[in-house]
Amino acid sequence: MQTFTSVIKMQEWCKEQKREGKTIGLVPTMGYLHQGHLALVREARRACDIVVVSIFVNPIQFGVGEDFEDYPRDLDKDSLLLEQGQVDAVFAPSIKEMYPLGYNSFVEVLGEISQKLCAQSRPIHFRGVTTVVSKLFHICLPDQAFFGQKDAQQVMIIEKMVRELNFPLSIVRVPIVREEDGLALSSRNVYLDAEQRKQALVLNRSLQAARELIQSGERNVAKVKSLLEQTIKTSPGAIIGYAEIYDASDLTEVEEIKGQVLIALAVKFGTTRLIDNLLVEV
Amino acid sequence: MQTFTSVIKMQEWCKEQKREGKTIGLVPTMGYLHQGHLALVREARRACDIVVVSIFVNPIQFGVGEDFEDYPRDLDKDSLLLEQGQVDAVFAPSIKEMYPLGYNSFVEVLGEISQKLCAQSRPIHFRGVTTVVSKLFHICLPDQAFFGQKDAQQVMIIEKMVRELNFPLSIVRVPIVREEDGLALSSRNVYLDAEQRKQALVLNRSLQAARELIQSGERNVAKVKSLLEQTIKTSPGAIIGYAEIYDASDLTEVEEIKGQVLIALAVKFGTTRLIDNLLVEV
Description:
homodimer; alpha/beta; Rossmann fold; Pantoate--beta-alanine Ligase, Chain: A,domain 2; 2 domains; three-stranded antiparallel beta sheet; 10 helices
């Protein structure tokens, strides 16, 4: 496994792989890898000749007062995990390498899809994501790029960006990986103390309750949302950021459950904000 | 020469050329081709295995009240010229093909470079340009893309975008092509009546006067700008949009001529707005 920190060297290496006729799978991450990331790596390994994993805590997707400085990092451990996962190359650039002095180019997906859910409390977040992902696509030249369904809104926005800006690649969504007790894996789970960790189970529990209600025949979105909120509130420390049900294709409002809907949650436990979601099809 | 109107088919064809190890040169145009465009084609022909020319009058770079509807078009004549220029493929998509319903993805270069000169009167122009050029890069997969120095600010912004977003290609600037009497070639010259056509020569004449003043030793920007404006005003129909001298690397203000400067003009004759420029190095 090779590790690159230089944009030019990473790009040259990827160009060389392409010249040799190999397909490239890219797994963009912010590091501090867990089994969710490794599921992405396995999918990429299965689908492509070459697997590149990027590790970059992207400053421009963090707002003022967010956890950019505190975001957990462990490049040595990450490298070991990726080596075991038979990754071919790791791209771990510095901030200066990605955003040199005077940097001022941005890629943006506007509209409803970028204004709801996480965008409400993180207004600059998705512009930072689409910009860094565009850069990574140009540097690593993937045929396929792998993203977790855990960040449901992110993957929807990236799919729209790829389609609309005609990036020559396809996006693969990989399902959420959960702990045995149902907590969705996240690098941010490390922030939780034992009590918060227990309370955080309410995320998955409320999603499952909502799904059961829908499966029992309920189609009224307001009623399902009400159950969702009630269930979250059974956890005394939970502060709801959002608990929403939207059309899963474009995040438009729905009054009635039909087709595929996205049930999406953001809940704070102490200072730690966790997100989770579930796709339900009727 | 093949002509493509479908994004997917154009992209597939370009991918196939790359798989065969060929290099691609792209010449993005809005059509109504003149010798300026054909100079770009010749450069691309010299440098690359495959030459692709795109012809697309890009609606999102025109503001309200600008000449999008009136912009001259002649695809048959353009195709003939490109065939004679030994172009391999023409990409001439419809607006709907490039911007399907609900389109909302944009690429933007912010900062000083995007706020001066043409941006003053055309605030959305460069966002439209960088967006369509990004799309064309993703569709046509060029190793090199060719732009005219005539649109000096445009090529500077595109170079910054390519560098900062790490597009895997290089930009080639091609010098302005002029009529024998000095008028810079432009598809918009067709709007001029005989009298305006004569008056428009003041653009090149004022640039040359400014250059001669600099070459005679003048280094004070205000004095050179003053001569520039005086010269333009000798033409009774000329309405100055701007007549500026900036650092040629980033369009920052300069008080004294040193290194390379860009002398840039936008002048209206009747309803026709023409631009011209000159790079001067001391």
